[in-house]
Design a protein that fits this description.
The chain is mainly α. 71% of the residues lie in helices and 0% in strands. The chain contains eight helices and no strands. α1 crosses α5, α1 runs parallel beside α6 and α2 runs antiparallel to α4.
């Protein structure tokens, strides 16, 4: 299967949406700790491209931000915007909602790209989750925060829903653009519900 066969025409917009939002979350993690512009830029890049880099290395694709300079440019631009804007603009839950959009979009894009490179459905689904979540995990580790993997909130689950639904709808023969919109919408809806009503998965309880 050629690399672009499973990618809908709007896939680049999904990619840029996720990239910009995750870059913003990385830059804000540094900004809230009073770091320099250099640190903001580093956090923006590592958060924005982290998941996609791991995905591309695993599926044997050229690392996207190495071959397309727009990716790094978007991350650096986002870091600059956060550096020059007032802190009050980024308070509250606004970024959580933007992050929900990026999470769903990146999960779909990652799964679509993996399918396009001939990856079987189950690993392709996992590549969607990796694309959406690994950058945030790296950000949390560098910032000294509890990783999203160690929190019960519905975050990785929302990425898994979007990725799995896209793969499933694609296997059923649905057009790529329609499958992408439906899958991303479902992932966003789950993440939005988790933000709004504080939904989370049950934690493991030790049995005596």
């Amino acid at each position: 299967m050629p690399p672009v066969a499973a990618l809908p025409a709007l896939a680049p917009w999904f990619d840029l949406a996720g990239l910009a939002v995750f870059a913003a979350s990385g830059a804000l993690a540094a900004a809230r700790r009073g770091q320099t512009m250099v640190t903001l830029a580093f956090f923006a890049i590592i958060t924005g491209v982290g998941g996609g880099t791991v995905r591309d290395l695993l599926i044997g694709a050229p690392v996207f931000w190495i071959v397309d300079s727009r990716a790094a440019a978007v991350c650096l631009s986002v870091a600059l915007v956060i550096w020059v804007t007032p802190e009050r603009w980024w308070r509250g839950e606004a970024l959580d909602w933007f992050d929900a959009v990026g999470l769903a979009a990146y999960a779909v894009y990652g799964a679509a790209k993996a399918l396009g490179y001939g990856v079987p459905p189950v690993p392709a689904f996992l590549m969607g989750v990796v694309t959406a979540c690994v950058g945030g995990i790296i950000r949390d580790v560098l910032a000294g925060e509890p990783s999203i993997l160690m929190r019960p909130e519905l975050y990785v689950t929302a990425a898994a829903l979007a990725s799995a639904l896209f793969v499933g709808l694609t296997l059923l023969g649905m057009a790529g653009a329609v499958a992408a919109i439906l899958a991303a919408s479902a992932g966003f809806a789950l993440r939005a519900a988790a933000i709004r009503w504080q939904l989370h998965l049950p934690a493991y309880r030790q049995r005596r």
